[in-house]
């Protein structure tokens, strides 16, 4: 049995020509630029995802959130363990309960922490300057995250 080989199309016979040095440099530069662009896009995406859900009023400052967490642990966690409420069970710091009570953001949480509400006393002096705002930012962030356990 004879094998019949298909004829090569005209102009494609023989080995492929070697790339010219200028073409190779252009290809390498294009690949490098694509890699740089991809890296920049990934960095931008990571930053957007990192800061997207943080409050827009400036509480995304990690120092404020850390201070708020420490103040909460020192002055609030006795009654509000993991966002709950050991005195009035339906008055928790969970997002759905805060919204039900008309608390719609960290500034309102800060006002309650400072001035008090209902049976809860205000803690403005104990929390110090900016402390109520820091606690408000931290509590709101925890509420958004569902009060994750540490």
Q: How is this structure best described in words?
A:
With 150 residues, the protein is mainly alpha-helical. It has two domains: 31 residues; 84 residues, Cytochrome Bc1 Complex, Chain D, domain 2 (Orthogonal Bundle), CATH 1.10.760. Helix content is 53%, strand content 3%. It is built from six helices and two strands; from the N terminus they run H-H-H-H-E-E-H-H. A two-stranded antiparallel ribbon has the order 1-2. A hairpin with a 2-residue loop joins strand 1 and strand 2. Helix 4 crosses helix 6. The radius of gyration is 31 Å and the shape is elongated. The relative contact order is 0.12.
**How many domain modules?**
2
What structural class do you assign from the helix and strand content? Answer: mainly alpha
Number of helices: 6
Distance between the termini: 77 Å
Strand order, sheet with most strands: 1-2
Beta-strand residue percentage: under 5%
CATH topology of the largest domain: Cytochrome Bc1 Complex, Chain D, domain 2
Note the main sheet.
Answer: 2 strands, antiparallel
Q: In one word, what is the shape?
A: elongated
- In CATH terms, the superfamily of the largest domain is Cytochrome c-like domain
CATH architecture of the largest domain: Orthogonal Bundle
